[in-house]
Amino acid sequence: MLNVAAVRKLFPHTRKTAYFNTASNGPLATPAYQVMDAHYQTARMAGIGGQMELFDTLDRIRKNAATIFGCREDEAGFGFNTTFGINLAAFGLPLKPGDEVLLSDVEFPANVYPWLGLRQRGIKVTLLKNKNGCFDIDLFEQSITHRTRVLSLSFVQFFNGYKNDLTTLGKICRERNLFFVVDAIQGAGAEPMQVHKWNVDIAAAGCQKWMLSPQGTGIFYISDAMKKRMIAPWRSWLGVDWQCNWSNLLDFSRPFESSARQYELGTYPAAHVLALDWALTFINKLGVADIQAHNHGLLDRLIAYLENEPYYRITSCLDKKHRSSILTFATAHGDIKPLHQQLLKAGVVTAMREGSVRVAAHLFNNARDINRLIAVLKQAAKGA
Ligand SMILES: Cc1ncc(COP(=O)(O)O)c(C=O)c1O
């Protein structure tokens, strides 16, 4: 169980707002801010030199990323956002003209546009029709042809919190010989992941949401087997092993790293990497399974209220298997803008997505935050 009172002390925003918008952007904890601040103070005094410690920090990040993905350390790397890992997949998988990629028609654009870029190379991209906002596994199975090579899908859908059944999907991908790519940003850090068990080939997650890190930080997973089949879409001078020895930079004979690190790109955003290191260590110390239990427990309270108030209609799937740390609901008369504004005025931050109010509960939220949200919902229902 989380010690939420202790956690809240690290997040100054909790003194003011009931923040339920981590699915857009996670807040930074004070220690994450402090390590960045200290770094910039040093940089301001020209104190940034070889930055050798940063390589240890990055090792720790890969280790923590591996814990979050449920993979081995050498299968996890630092990327800058989700888009980084999706592009690694789209342009690194061994695809040829005539091959087909399957996506859902309700994916976040970060998992669509990189694939659409493949059309220029003669690769067909098909968006499968959703069923009530959810991925339709039957349609997926029926749509696979001898040309189909890839399924790329979100772990958790951004606008309704639907957690996809990656066990079943991964099994189908394995049986039908498809590459399986996962956009994990809306789950990683809040919902346990088991990429090996799910037969995922590549997964990508920006860390700016549930991993409470600065924008411009991300992690990716690439399976060992996949690494061997990839045609690397890019190469970097930091993708080879220098053993922290910068005395022979004109030696171009160094082989690329065999780990996921071979796909990392050039000089790192050091301040952000330091904050990311703090945040991932923090999340893994709390444990993603406990974070999930906490988040779902808070949303249970909201569900109990919404189910008994006819003015509201839950638009998320409540099947346990498909629940996540995101819950969405709509109002009887459709327009959610006034309610969203009313919530904001009361210091309750949510998001509007596809006609629903989106509530994202995370480790710093407590029962008081949920009560504050419900109090506004009661007022709005009464006044409607
Ligand atoms: C499902 C999903 N994928 C990706 C992103 C963002 O992609 P990136 O981290 O590349 O900016 C978001 C939200 O911003 C998202 O909800």
Q: What does this entry look like structurally?
A:
The protein is globular and about 75 Å long. Strands 2-8-7-6-5-3-4 form a seven-stranded mixed beta sheet, with helices on both faces. The two termini are 38 Å apart. It folds into two domains: 4-20 and 287-379, Alpha-Beta Complex (Aspartate Aminotransferase, domain 1), CATH 3.90.1150.10; 33-285, 3-Layer(aba) Sandwich (Aspartate Aminotransferase, domain 2), CATH 3.40.640. Helix 7 links the parallel strand 5 and strand 6 (179-183). The chain is α/β, with parallel strands linked by helices and 384 residues long. Helix 2 (30-44) packs antiparallel against helix 9 (270-286), helix 3 (52-69) runs parallel beside helix 9 (270-286) and helix 10 (288-307) runs parallel beside helix 12 (367-383). It contains twelve helices and 13 strands. The protein binds pyridoxal-5'-phosphate. Pyridoxal-5'-phosphate is lined by residues 81-83, 108, 110-111, 154, 158, 183, 185-186, 206, 218. The site of pyridoxal-5'-phosphate has 13 residues, from helix 4.
CATH homologous superfamily placement of the largest domain: Type I PLP-dependent aspartate aminotransferase-like (Major domain)
User: If classified by CATH, what would the architecture of the largest domain be?
Assistant: 3-Layer(aba) Sandwich
| Main structural class | alpha/beta
Number of strands: 13
Strand content: 5-15%
Bound molecules: pyridoxal-5'-phosphate
Q: What's the total helix number?
A: 12
Give the SSE order as H and E letters: HEHHEHEHEHEHEEEHHHEEHEEEH
Low-confidence stretches: none
Taken from the alpha-carbon principal axes, the silhouette is globular
Q: Give the total of domains.
A: 2
Overall pLDDT: 96
End-to-end gap:
38 Å
Q: What integer value in Å does the Rg equal? A: 22 Å
Helix content: 25-40%
Give me the CATH fold name of the largest domain: Aspartate Aminotransferase, domain 2
